[in-house]
Design goal:
The chain is of the alpha/beta class. It has helices at about 25-35, 50-60, 95-105, 120-185; strands at about 15-20, 40-45, 60-65, 70, 70-75, 85-90, 110-115. The strands form two sheets. Strands 2-1-3-6-7 form a five-stranded parallel beta sheet, sandwiched between helices. The chain has a two-stranded antiparallel ribbon with strand order 4-5.
Length: about 200
């Protein structure tokens, strides 16, 4: 279990998107497209440092990061150790195949080159949001199954304890009854049948 405190799983949680990019006309158009088509909470920052602070505070589902910011690179925001669960969409000025392959190997979900087609970016965001809803649904189902399995095991253990207790009570009661019968003055041991057996020829 991670150091973060576990939170209840919700399928219908409104996704949070952090956008780490310079505040210019291109990003303004993208924000407008996202606000128009996606039901999500949007947070805009313009440095890697502020992006990391926002990620830590908001636990977003998606991070849209410009490749080059004033204090670092968008790829620096890609989760590396598995402690964070969010998808990164990278915005680049040029399409350099070696860097694209490196970004994909590091876990970037998608890459778009300036000038950005806002509709394509929003399509990618909608796809990632849908995939996250499916993941949450599956996680909720598994959580419920684990809870049901745990309850069944607990109920079976309690039932077994009760059956053992009843069996012990029956054994003690039978023993007590046998002792009372043997101790009664009217009791005598059974007489074996002493009639000779007829030999068979």
């Amino acid at each position: 279990m991670s150091a973060k405190e576990a939170t209840p799983i919700s399928i219908n949680k409104t996704p949070h998107i952090v956008i780490a990019a310079p505040d210019n006309g291109r990003i303004t158009d993208l924000l407008a497209e996202l606000a128009d088509r996606v039901t999500a909470r949007l947070t805009l920052v313009d440095t890697i440092y502020d992006a990391r602070m926002a990620i830590k505070a908001l636990n977003p589902e998606i991070v849209i990061a410009d490749h080059r910011l004033e204090d670092g690179f968008g790829m620096d925001l890609v989760p590396r150790d598995g402690s964070e669960r969010y998808q990164v969409i990278l915005l680049k000025e040029t399409l350099e195949m070696d860097r694209v392959l490196l970004a994909l190997r590091l876990g970037v979900a998608d890459i778009f080159v300036h000038p950005i087609d806002g509709e394509l970016v929003v399509d990618a965001v909608e796809h990632l949001c849908k995939r996250e809803r499916v993941r949450r649904r599956d996680a909720l189902r598994q959580s419920r199954l684990r809870g049901l399995s745990s309850k069944l095991i607990k109920d079976r253990r309690v039932l077994r304890q009760r059956v053992d207790l009843i069996c012990n009570d029956i054994v003690h009661a039978y023993r007590h009854l046998a002792e009372k019968v043997v101790g009664s003055p009217d009791w005598s041991p059974p007489i074996e049948d002493e009639r000779p057996t007829r030999e068979r020829y």
